[in-house]
């Protein structure tokens, strides 16, 4: 039964990941019909048929190329589908019940949106983030400590807001403030601090690597959102253990 439920969650994640790929592309381009519009090849604009839209399977079956114009399909699509499928499966093993899983699956869908959208376009879209912040507040009211969540949101927004004001928007973008509000409400104040610290540590390591390999230079813009997503994920799954370990270390 566990394997069956795990498979169902994985398949559902693939479907949601496929929807996210359309959402990300059309929100950025301004194309209408996100919910009801027909999918098409971004290269030849050919309307895709049902057998072209099977998450992950269609990409593998066509060897990553459009069935009609034979041009390569971006690997972003299967990466997003697979990432969402794996995430939904992991959450099934982590969550206590189906309702908790559903709420957490939506939260992590937003995190995946942030990760891929920010990497691809180096911005965050309010059409997703503003409803997501409200949803995270509802999540904290039902499953968490709303006071801790509000403090966490205040810490994150204040921290990023100060950087935004001091640098006049050069260090971080205004979208990072909305990400901060979202993760603060999702995690609570202790895990929010851990998520931010983890994000900056990982971001620094990746930044140094990119500089030393000359993939970027000192003037290159590196989006913060993906690192905040990684930090939030670490904090969500391991936050309590890491905080307990750190406090015990201080008491030694």
Structure description:
The protein has 252 residues and is mainly α. The protein folds into 2 domains: 1-94, no CATH class; 100-252, no CATH class. The chain has helices at 2-29, 57-61, 76-94, 98-121, 126-143, 146-167, 175-187, 189-212, 225-251. α1 (2-29) packs across α3, α4 (98-121) packs across α9 and α7 crosses α9 (225-251). The chain starts with a helix and ends with a helix. The model has no long low-confidence stretch (mean pLDDT 88).
Low-confidence stretches: none
Kindly name the structural category. mainly alpha
Integer tally of domains: 2
End-to-end C-alpha gap = 45 Å
Estimate the strand proportion.
under 5%
How many runs of DSSP E, i.e. beta strands?
A: 0
Which word captures the global form?
Answer: globular
- Rg on CA atoms, Å: 19 Å
Mean pLDDT: 88
Break the fold down into its secondary structure elements and pairings:
Blueprint (H helix, E strand, L loop, with lengths): L1 H28 L27 H5 L14 H19 L3 H24 L4 H18 L2 H22 L7 H13 L1 H24 L12 H27 L1
Provide keyphrases for this structure.
mainly alpha; 2 domains; 252 residues; globular; single chain; 0% strand
